[in-house]
Amino acid sequence: MRKLHLNAFLMGVGHHEAAWRTSGADPSRVTDIRHYQELARTAERGKLDSVFLADSLSFWGDIKYHTLGGLEPLTMLAAMAVVTEHIGLIATMSTTYNEPFNVARKFASLDHISGGRAGWNIVTSASESEARNFGGSLPPHAVRYARATEFVDVVTKLWDSWEDGAVLGDQTEGIYADKEKVRAVEHQGERFKVSGPLNIPRSPQGRPLLVQAGSSEDGKEFAARYADAVFTAQPVIYSAQAFYADFKKRVVKHGRNPDEVAILPGLSAIVGSTEREAAQLQEELGALVVPESTVATISEMLGVDLTEHPLDQPLPDIPGVVEGQRSRAGVIVDMARRENLSLEQLIRRLSGNRGHRVVAGTPEQIADQIEEWFVKGAADGFNVMPPTLPGGLDDFVDHVVPELQRRGLFRTEYEGRTLRGHYGLARPVVAHA
Amino acid sequence: MRKLHLNAFLMGVGHHEAAWRTSGADPSRVTDIRHYQELARTAERGKLDSVFLADSLSFWGDIKYHTLGGLEPLTMLAAMAVVTEHIGLIATMSTTYNEPFNVARKFASLDHISGGRAGWNIVTSASESEARNFGGSLPPHAVRYARATEFVDVVTKLWDSWEDGAVLGDQTEGIYADKEKVRAVEHQGERFKVSGPLNIPRSPQGRPLLVQAGSSEDGKEFAARYADAVFTAQPVIYSAQAFYADFKKRVVKHGRNPDEVAILPGLSAIVGSTEREAAQLQEELGALVVPESTVATISEMLGVDLTEHPLDQPLPDIPGVVEGQRSRAGVIVDMARRENLSLEQLIRRLSGNRGHRVVAGTPEQIADQIEEWFVKGAADGFNVMPPTLPGGLDDFVDHVVPELQRRGLFRTEYEGRTLRGHYGLARPVVAHA
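The joint structure predicted for all components is written out below.
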């Protein structure tokens, strides 16, 4: 029977931007590795597929009002890997501001350290504020995706540069590696020249899991070609179903098995022991948001400066979105236009979910909504975004997961120890030129 | 009283290239994080200042004969940080093949994760084989150092971009950070344009420890200006004393306190319970070296292809060394010329130490030699390079360290918890433009 996939998307002390202000929250934990180690253990207790770390190479919002999301993801995941045994470890890393050799090596290292639990969420870094930390000018969308495509190609070649069995370790003859099985990659592309081989043997998964979240046309094509899992922002079921159907078709078009690419919308799950309690929690969080504080975040998401825009007015024209390049932005702008929302109404609507789906209710109600999307062709699982951390993840793991298990929708034990294994994917064979 | 500084320089299953062939060695441990976690705990048991990880972005030698030195250093150190409390954690990272924002962020992250124990060994990546993994052509020495200089400048500005006390975490007012204390760096240099600020608060050490190992003219000037500790290859005391005196003068010339820059020659310490036992171990290791296997390594070190050169002949002319650009190479070539060594004799001489000082003997004899260099102006301490790992580090920690402690030369307890603290260095104040 088909099973759900569930990742714990971790973000500081919670996804809701006011999470750090709730009573009991400790904002100093956003830079405390023990906090993240505990969250990883909680996710493992819930038999989740993985923990997922987003990343930005600049602030996400206005640092006056918003906490950080954490430390550098790879460094954090290495520390989380050694206190867990099963949970997958997915880090976001940019193809625009890194080099393929370094990225291949870091993820291969994490895969060795974790015994086969590494995943790479590939991003192309769309923000101007990130560009300003790397030379100043943001490369155009198409250029970033062209670089990402060649980048992933090089990284995959490097991961494949050691065959299985290449390490002989023959102490008597003094032969460490079989050089017939360790090959230069000699990549000579438009953007990269990389000789290889990687200086790390093939890792337990062969290739770490590839995750992608682009939902522009370029992004979807890229994901359909490379990704093992796709993260997407889908606030409502009809758009999620359309995305799902379209995306699986694209996967088939690329000659791949659509069952081997998991589509995972983000899910902000607000759990209460009663419906009323969940609604109260949601209200409390919303009341803690200072609307002015989120204007910078919304500006960043939409790629337009709204800091001088009146809070009681609808959104201005947003040229970037018209070009269809920024599709999460597109979804948000569509919603604002459709419902004629003022900037402040939009801010409150997005508070705590950044355009992702929100469900608030009892564990049974949340399980109902998860099940509906899962059986109606809208999702293969979810990237769960707890509004508060650790509390929101504890609630999900202790109350929602058991309900999903009772319904036979989610694993009750891990069957293997690798992230690919959790996703039902085989270990890739080495590709030869 | 002045105390020695001792780092455990870790390298796979030992610094001797034949270490992996000795009985009891397990070559599979070179990619096993538990091996390195145990080594870090051993170094901490010995109250050493730090563990030190070298790095290369290509193979060090011929992979047919030589094992790897480990996984990617930052990833490894994050996993080692969380099983230790005091030991410093120094990772090598290249300024030629990384971006300043990423490097500042990774070391700040490691410093947070470890509670103030991170150190950065700054290298400019001199090898052609590394260049081939990053576009193909090795930038000239002077260009690499010019980049390194601006690079460290930017990284330091980013580390200083959050003042202490910038994080308010005021839950009642909803103010996370005091923006007066989080400043853009607005670096507009010849090579880098970086706006900042860093998206990580000032770390426990303020700035991670800076280590450097260049011994060319540019390298020494760079280190005299920036480094808190200097790693150097000095096979004999007279050259070490000359290096020491010259280097401390350079430090003074840069307006710095010479007592605040530790000079640490590499030290290959072969410990036996008797002198004879140590000599036997050294001989056994040497006998396990296949001379042909090291030709590639020597070629890489000297920057010239010796793979077709007859083993029984002296070195050919090596043009790069004449230019004085490759100074460890210079020391080695000088030694070969002075003693009229054949290539094979040179290989056996370098086996297990790569041009560093070798001492073999009882713990007392090794302590004598450490003391001599320490009191005679040749060293402030050593980067200890155990021929085998874990055995060689256990021997050093269990037998040599206690002897040094008995003599009052080395700490018997840690006095603080930060790497800067171990080196007697204050936490830097934030520099303002």
